[in-house]
């Protein structure tokens, strides 16, 4: 009489893991095939202007003198990187980015926590929070410009500042620019963080309460680590957007009083001075800096972005 031995549990567990892994790979492969046409279109749309800008950056080329177009190699980049104007604009852009993103992260988390916990009036509250984000950036910039204007603005009247010129000084102008950015884009971060808060395991929170953990301990030991992927996505998207800021400085100060950003510098070279060679070089440097920021964020957080999807 022969006896049939049951397969070891480890073999069954391994088979289940293999099947799950194959299923995930199949879903990812299907997703790639479904999105491949859009990838091709995006590459075709973006590759030509990016490549053309790269080519133009290697020339001394002005629209006012098309016949005088000459190849200068990397000379444009050397001129830009050794010019104090570039580094001043770089510092201004970095300052605005650091201030706005840091404040928006704190406020966005607070708004996300309120939207998650509130029960009555949740819909109207979320709608009210999202109103600033729905306003076009240029329109928002004009609103803040008139609010802080010397003659027609109401901020000076509220604060009893008389005829204080907010845009006549570098630091006060940057303060208004940052304030307008924070007001408009905090709802964007709050939405992304709300998606991360929803995925925080409630049973872990309850277990921590039973064990006597304080609210601060639960925040830094459970909530924030569980939201690491959502925080990284929010910071990455918002940082890249803030690094390319153009509308607010253009509308409020037109780059005066050392409030010019890198995007504004590219605009001034390309449009105002019609120096396509130098302007294209600034645009390429801006693109490379955006890629560098994205690389640092992805590698620095070392986060699996599939956690955002709940995989």
Automatic annotation (TrEMBL):
Record keyword Transmembrane helix present: yes
Region of interest called Disordered, as start-end residue ranges on this chain: 1-22
Localisation per UniProt entry: Cell membrane
Record membrane topology: Multi-pass membrane protein
Gene3D superfamilies, A to Z: MetI-like (1.10.3720.10)
Record keywords: Cell membrane, Membrane, Transmembrane, Transmembrane helix, Transport
CC per GO annotation: plasma membrane
Domain ABC transmembrane type-1 residue range list: 90-297
Any GO BP: transmembrane transport
Keyword Transmembrane appears in the UniProt entry: yes
Matching CDD domains: TM_PBP2 (cd06261)
Bilayer-crossing regions: 30-55, 90-116, 128-150, 170-198, 273-298
Classification via InterPro entries: MetI-like, MetI-like_sf
Cited Pfam families: BPD_transp_1 (PF00528)
Family per similarity comment: Belongs to the binding-protein-dependent transport system permease family.
Protein name in UniProt: ABC transporter permease
Source lineage: Bacteria, Bacillati, Actinomycetota, Actinomycetes, Mycobacteriales
